[in-house]
Amino acid sequence: MITSTSNQRIKEIVQLQKKNRARNTEGVFIVEGIRMVREIPEDKLKALYVTEEFYKKHKAELPGNVKPEFVTPTVFSYIADTKTPQGVLAIVWQNKYTLADILKKGTEKKEMLLVLDNLQDPGNLGTIFRTAEAAGVTGIILSKDSVDIYNPKVIRSTMGAIFRMPFVYVEKLTDTIEELKAHQIQVYAAHLEGKNAYDEECYLNGTAYLIGNEGNGLRQEVADCADTWIRIPMLGQAESLNAAVAASILMFEAARQRRK
Amino acid sequence: MITSTSNQRIKEIVQLQKKNRARNTEGVFIVEGIRMVREIPEDKLKALYVTEEFYKKHKAELPGNVKPEFVTPTVFSYIADTKTPQGVLAIVWQNKYTLADILKKGTEKKEMLLVLDNLQDPGNLGTIFRTAEAAGVTGIILSKDSVDIYNPKVIRSTMGAIFRMPFVYVEKLTDTIEELKAHQIQVYAAHLEGKNAYDEECYLNGTAYLIGNEGNGLRQEVADCADTWIRIPMLGQAESLNAAVAASILMFEAARQRRK
Lengths: 260, 260
Description:
Two copies of one chain form a homodimer.
Chain A (H helix, E strand, L loop, with lengths): L7 H11 L1 H7 L1 E5 L1 H4 L7 E6 L1 H7 L10 E2 L2 H7 L8 E6 L5 H7 L6 E5 L5 H14 L3 E5 L8 H7 L8 E4 L2 H10 L3 E5 L5 E2 L9 E5 L8 H4 L4 E4 L11 H17 L1
Parallel strand pairs in A: 2-3, 5-6, 5-10, 6-7, 8-10, 8-11, 9-11
Antiparallel strand pairs in A: 1-4, 2-4
Helix pairs in contact in A: 1-2, 7-8, 7-11
Keywords (chains A, B): Methyltransferase, Transferase
Family (chains A, B): Belongs to the class IV-like SAM-binding methyltransferase superfamily. RNA methyltransferase TrmH family.
Protein name (chains A, B): 23S rRNA (Guanosine(2251)-2'-O)-methyltransferase RlmB
């Protein structure tokens, strides 16, 4: 039982919660709550921390392959990112994907990719992962200046999709987009100045959607790489849509067309 | 110039930020940031608070009909809900709508309504308002136990739609749904057990979508009132969608059909 917040392991966990660099140096991230913990692939679970109270109630639901470490409620509150923690937290090995992995995943030219340009809001990124899985997206590509996928708020909002959705951060988005095009993937930029409405295009073949930053949209040089600019028609005085909402509308239009 | 955080007006503003009851007693709410302040309808602006620095830079963008009150940066940080406040905050009169107002707004049986059952997340509610305006929704109905629309986080996420989208909190959602049906509005429940996919229904006539709580979905008695249960087909292991995302997909399917 770990009883002190000055325990070395506890200090390390706090660093993993707070710091991107600490997570990437160790190649791990943190997952909280039983619902998420149960979705961790067996070979990815590195360590498990629980309170005694949690363990007594939920012992049967815990993964069987890693022995949990007990911590006091005070220590648990200290390492938890959530305000009212359940009492279970896992250290999980990061998944490493390459662009090649992602391009292999889409079979018969049926890729559906999201390309995120400088996305900044953790909740948006998590929601995009969650929605992408449901829509049949085959991979997510992020510019290296996007918010860190392993940020605890992002992880929570993915609702488990983090364990299943391939993704890759790339150095230069414009180069990557050219690679997609070389793979016969049609690249669409969600853009306020798009000529065609999004539902006037066909997404039955390999498709990638470029989604921009929350405040500024797509960078010009990124938007310029797209094959086609599409817009989501808007009524009223609305100037734009939330980035996760815009991405969701596009993904589910592709899913709708592909179901027919 | 107000220089002290113990000033009576300042104390009142803090109460308005924090307390639903204080806002409803006075019939006002708070708006922060120049982008939102510029969208306040002229007759709704009650009071304006600025820092000197903000005023010097943005004087020309401020509404002309209410004289701003100056506060020191320290006092401004104290009354602001945001962590890095811009230096402008407005007290705004609440809009009062009735169900009759909302039903009048949809012309020629083209209502598009959202009915929110115990929605709890402020960001979700704000995003729903923002998206609803863009999709052509004519009004939003909320169960009285939903999150308060005048919560500062909700207001921010609406991106101004709060000033334009009619809404009403109702005592008993099931009674209200019966009223909608009496107005020939087709009521669809977004439900995991829906038989038809959402894109297999026609939304050209009066349409209302029932959207449930983030964790628990629709209450059984509310779902039972719907004419039709519809589902959003999901791939992978995704168990559900974020409430704002689900609502967005439905609203934009109706918008898509209505554009044809």
